[in-house]
Amino acid sequence: MTEPPSTGAKTVFSLCAAEVLTMVGVFAFPALLPSFVAEWGLSNTEAGWISGVVFAGYTVAVPVLSTLTDRIDAKRVYLAGALVAALSALLYAMAAEGFWSALALRFASGVGLAGTYMPGLKALVDRTSGPRQARWISFYTASFSLGTSASFLIIGAVAEIWGWRSAFALAGLGAAAALVLVAALLEPCRPIPPAKPTNPFDFAPVIRNRAAMGYVLGYAAHVWELFGARSWMVAFLAWVMASQPGAAGPTPTTVATLGALLAMASSIIGADLAVRFDRRRVCAFAMLSSAALAAVIGFCGTLPYGAVVALILLYNVLIQIDSAALTTGAVMAAEPSRRGATIAVHSLLGFGAGFIGPLAFGMVLDQAGGGNSALAWGLAFASLAVIVGLGPLALRLR
User: Fold this and answer.
1) How many CA atoms lie within 13 A of 109 on its CB side?
2) Nearest to 371 by CA among 310, 305, 298
3) Share of the chain residues as helix, strand and coil, in percent rounded to the nearest 5
4) SS3 category, 4
């Protein structure tokens, strides 16, 4: 058996940088959602399907891809995932023409994400050790927010100058660059084998691990809210700005970019707080705080645009406090030989909720009056509050 190499900055840097590069295309559709709605004549429900189907693709693929990392080097899974991410974005740039083609290609993008995000975490865990490992994990998971920020910033800026097809092409090149980076800088590493032969796809022991499942279920509530909010944030701010002639301030995509950067810092701080204090209490406090703001923020669309921007930025901070802390808790509570399987269940439930969140948001928006109704926006955001408010109950599992 080959022991995992000692902690190294090169491993952490390589995986964090690669994650940001593969993430450029993940939120490309939400970044340009108002434009696609106008160009393709999409309903809010159809837009919700396209926004959320990325996470449906992720949910379908992640149980297999993450669990494989208990048996083979996670680096190999990562490289395959980065290739799928690159091809799906490039094909979107060349071939997307409406609802059905966009739906299929965004589903493929989710499969690429399934091959990179959690396998990347497993690659980091396999290659690091010691008391700093929890912090390395929090850096990696927080890089998801940095990648989200890059997605909104880069896609929005490039689309404004050269159009959305060029923006998606650039996202594909970013994923290809991540493939090259990981292939060149990450050393091979065999995972720790189980003490006795087991079926790697037997998830029953993971489900029986109450401590790990508490974090997994809490993460599902968190991701429902996170992806629901991120998928519709730009559209909400665009409606607020359009309904206030003469409103001045940062563009909706700029606000989403700043919000994701603040969220990254919030995630790292939250992870540190979880180490210093009781992890479950920190996560529960974060969930209840974001639920309280989600319950009212959609009803604040008639406030001055600058005030709404400030509330959205605060919301981004509150949403993300528990993100790294929940994932780290699940990994640390997992049996060492079943970390890949635990990560698979964690991602399956979490990103399954991430698929439903944007879709449910769009459905509430349509049913309550559409994207030009203040009441509809209020109820749609309030639906996120209901779900994340259930998260602290899951954390009571021990």
Assistant:
1) 33
2) 298
3) 80, 0, 20
4) coil
Is 211 part of any domain? yes
Residues 77-94: tens digit of each pLDDT: 999 999 999 999 999 999
**At how many degrees (to 10) do helices 210-242 and 339-367 cross?**
30
Task: Report the SS3 class of residue 378.
Answer: helix
User: Within a domain: residue 75?
Assistant: yes
Distance CA 162, CA 140 (A): 32
Place of tokens 């589903």: 107
Q: Identify the domain containing residue 335 by its residue range.
A: 9-188+205-394
Nearest residue to 12 via CA among 133, 117, 130? 133
H helices present in 128-251, as ranges? 133-162, 164-185, 204-208, 210-242
Is 195 inside a domain boundary? no
CA 361, CA 44: separation in Å to the nearest integer? 9
Number of domains making up the chain: 1
**273 within a domain of the structure (yes/no):** yes
> What's the distance, Cα to Cα, between the start and end of the chain in Å?
32
**Contacts of 329 by beta carbon, 8 Å cutoff, 6+ apart:** 212, 214, 215, 274, 279, 280, 283
pTM beyond 0.85: no
